[in-house]
């Protein structure tokens, strides 16, 4: 009998968490930033774009527009040009400018630390808010669900949901709150290195005995 058949879903999730910590002990957010607002902007840019590409764009962007006030008053065409290579640049630039305007006008120039207030900002959904709260403020309000976390959580049999918000709810019930963000970061590392979208290397995966999908390979 495999380990996954002996353990409940919650027990498997906790064992996966332990192994991910061993596999990726130094895993951290891979976006480069110096302030909470810069992290917010970088996370908005990371939608349907790699962190590596975002990190190539943000040095020039933050040199020109380092804070919420400068971004709020930025020329939209110039902003679009600076973020163009991240894809969907028109919508991203519009949301960044609008979000920073709201930060200035409604929140006194400081990024709010409450989930409900962050969700008021244009271009900010739970994924972005979770990243910012956890990495900028050390507040774990939820589990960040990006494409890697969604794919791996489904493959590992930890959720049957397809909607990121429902996946997040399932994971929050399985994992300790202090580990919500480091779970996501480590799962993202594993998704990039081993459990890739098209050709997961199950034979070389340290989670395979806990994964129902691995038995199909």
Automatic annotation (TrEMBL):
<dbReference type="InterPro" id="IPR011257">
    <property type="entry name" value="DNA_glycosylase"/>
</dbReference>
<feature type="binding site">
    <location>
        <position position="211"/>
    </location>
    <ligand>
        <name>[4Fe-4S] cluster</name>
    </ligand>
</feature>
<keyword id="KW-0234">DNA repair</keyword>
<keyword id="KW-0326">Glycosidase</keyword>
<dbReference type="GO" id="GO:0004519">
    <property type="term" value="F:endonuclease activity"/>
</dbReference>
<keyword id="KW-0378">Hydrolase</keyword>
<keyword id="KW-0408">Iron</keyword>
<dbReference type="InterPro" id="IPR005759">
    <property type="entry name" value="Nth"/>
</dbReference>
<dbReference type="InterPro" id="IPR000445">
    <property type="entry name" value="HhH_motif"/>
</dbReference>
<keyword id="KW-0227">DNA damage</keyword>
<keyword id="KW-0255">Endonuclease</keyword>
<feature type="domain" description="HhH-GPD">
    <location>
        <begin position="45"/>
        <end position="193"/>
    </location>
</feature>
<feature type="binding site">
    <location>
        <position position="202"/>
    </location>
    <ligand>
        <name>[4Fe-4S] cluster</name>
    </ligand>
</feature>
<keyword id="KW-0540">Nuclease</keyword>
<feature type="binding site">
    <location>
        <position position="205"/>
    </location>
    <ligand>
        <name>[4Fe-4S] cluster</name>
    </ligand>
</feature>
<keyword id="KW-0479">Metal-binding</keyword>
<keyword id="KW-0456">Lyase</keyword>
<keyword id="KW-0004">4Fe-4S</keyword>
<comment type="function">
    <text>DNA repair enzyme that has both DNA N-glycosylase activity and AP-lyase activity. The DNA N-glycosylase activity releases various damaged pyrimidines from DNA by cleaving the N-glycosidic bond, leaving an AP (apurinic/apyrimidinic) site. The AP-lyase activity cleaves the phosphodiester bond 3' to the AP site by a beta-elimination, leaving a 3'-terminal unsaturated sugar and a product with a terminal 5'-phosphate.</text>
</comment>
<protein>
    <recommendedName>
        <fullName>Endonuclease III</fullName>
        <ecNumber>4.2.99.18</ecNumber>
    </recommendedName>
</protein>
<comment type="similarity">
    <text>Belongs to the Nth/MutY family.</text>
</comment>
<dbReference type="InterPro" id="IPR023170">
    <property type="entry name" value="HhH_base_excis_C"/>
</dbReference>
<dbReference type="Pfam" id="PF00730">
    <property type="entry name" value="HhH-GPD"/>
</dbReference>
<feature type="binding site">
    <location>
        <position position="195"/>
    </location>
    <ligand>
        <name>[4Fe-4S] cluster</name>
    </ligand>
</feature>
<dbReference type="InterPro" id="IPR003265">
    <property type="entry name" value="HhH-GPD_domain"/>
</dbReference>
<keyword id="KW-0411">Iron-sulfur</keyword>
<keyword id="KW-0238">DNA-binding</keyword>
<dbReference type="InterPro" id="IPR004036">
    <property type="entry name" value="Endonuclease-III-like_CS2"/>
</dbReference>
<dbReference type="Pfam" id="PF00633">
    <property type="entry name" value="HHH"/>
</dbReference>
């Amino acid at each position: 009998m495999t380990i996954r058949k002996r353990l409940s879903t919650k027990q498997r999730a906790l064992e996966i968490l332990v192994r991910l910590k061993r596999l990726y002990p130094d895993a951290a957010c891979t976006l480069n930033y110096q302030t909470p607002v810069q992290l917010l902007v970088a996370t908005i840019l990371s939608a349907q774009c790699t962190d590596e590409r975002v990190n190539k764009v943000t040095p020039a962007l933050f040199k020109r527009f380092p804070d919420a006030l400068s971004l709020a008053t930025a020329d939209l065409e110039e902003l679009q040009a600076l973020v163009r290579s991240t894809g969907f640049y028109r919508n991203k630039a519009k949301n960044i400018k609008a979000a920073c305007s709201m930060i200035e006008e409604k929140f006194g120039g400081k990024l709010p630390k409450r989930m409900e207030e962050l969700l008021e900002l244009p271009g900010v959904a739970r994924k972005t808010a979770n990243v910012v709260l956890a990495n900028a403020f050390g507040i774990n309000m939820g589990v960040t669900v990006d494409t890697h976390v969604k794919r791996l959580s489904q493959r590992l049999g930890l959720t049957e949901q397809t909607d990121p918000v429902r996946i997040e709810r399932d994971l929050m019930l399985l994992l300790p709150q202090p580990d919500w963000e480091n779970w996501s970061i480590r799962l993202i590392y594993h998704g990039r290195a081993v459990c890739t979208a098209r050709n997961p290397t199950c034979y070389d995966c340290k989670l395979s005995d806990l994964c129902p999908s691995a038995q199909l390979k």
